[in-house]
Amino acid sequence: MAYFVLDVGNSSVKAAFMEQGRIIRMSRVESVCDLPDDFIGSGEVSCGICSSVRPLSGVELHSLENLPFDVMQLSSDLPLPLKISYSTPSTLGPDRMAAAVGAWNRAPGRNILVIDAGTAITYDVVTSDGRYIGGNISPGAALRFRSLHEYTASLPRVSPEGDIPMVGYSTETAIRSGVINGVVNEISGYVNRLSTVYDSLLVFLTGGDADLFEIPIKSGIFAVKFLVLEGLECICRFNEKI
After folding, report:
1. Which CATH class is domain 2-139+182-240?
2. Contacts of 20 (CB under 8 A, 6+ apart)
């Protein structure tokens, strides 16, 4: 029995059918409406769930309603395998909830830091007693490159691909190094500081930009490309049992 999981992000939509934490097939599109009929298929689906960081359009909602199975919307009102100890749970991004659940499923009973590097970089902490206690949000690499170009008079728009010296030898390398090394230092700082507060902290790094950064940390960092999708499947299974 498969689970249908849908992760609607700021820049793309990832849809997948999963079984026991394994992706059977996956599609990446710009909108929910773009999911091809041959991808949806006619196989038996046990449960479907959608995580969206933005409001779905009427057309997208109609597309979900026309799927041959029911799809839950992930929100703070949906039962989760974690306790949400966040003062404004209704404002907590569903992708952050799902990634936290995915990490907890991989390492139950451990202190966890989830770092999701995408349009924004999010840092989320789950304690060893199964509580999501919160986290931080900062601009992702693309936003940093874009803002340096758009909010200054003469700095160019720079690609993340290219030489990243410790000290930039041109305006282009100065920007690229400043952004990429700045993010690396930010991530390293969070990991090092939180490791002094939470014993045996495990770190999970995910998100579309995760491959941009080489994190110079000796303690355990686990790169999990589709942690949000894994978490969505866990939430489906959890709600089936209720």
Report:
1. alpha beta
2. none
